TrEMBL record:
It comes from the Bacteria. The keyword Membrane does not apply. It comes from Streptomyces fulvorobeus. The keyword Repeat applies. This is Tfp pilus assembly protein PilF.
Length: 122
């Protein structure tokens, strides 16, 4: 097995971004596993892995990663939005609405505001 070092992890992270963009989420997860094993505190890697799990329709692992990111960064609007989409896709609308609204409250991004559906009754 090749020796790993911080530069290797940066390269793996960037390659995982490219794989996710190329619609190979499983390949991205494989690269990110080693990055996260070496740097479990790396929130950016965890957020990317959560996105890759979501893209691969691995909803429970995506949910767990997004929740871990939010434990560390409770004001991360994107993580709330992505977790909401994960709940929505898993058929859990109440939890989805809560996180869509948190995302919109943290960042008035038009996409977040539309998803939050503040006009609808709870």
């Amino acid at each position: 097995m090749p020796e790993t070092n911080p530069e290797t992890h940066v390269i793996d992270f960037r390659a995982a971004e490219q794989l996710l963009a190329a619609r190979d989420p499983r390949g991205a997860v494989k690269l990110l596993d080693s990055v996260i094993a070496a740097h479990p505190e790396n929130t950016a890697a965890r957020l990317l892995r959560a996105r890759a799990f979501f893209a691969a329709a691995q909803l429970r692992p995506a949910e767990l990663e997004f929740e871990l990111v939010l434990e560390r960064e409770p004001d991360n609007a994107f993580a709330h939005f992505a977790l909401a989409r994960t709940f929505q896709r898993a058929g859990r609308p109440e939890q989805a609405t809560r996180h869509f609204r948190l995302a919109a409250a943290l960042d008035p991004n038009p996409e977040y505001l539309r998803a939050a559906r503040f006009d609808d009754r709870p």
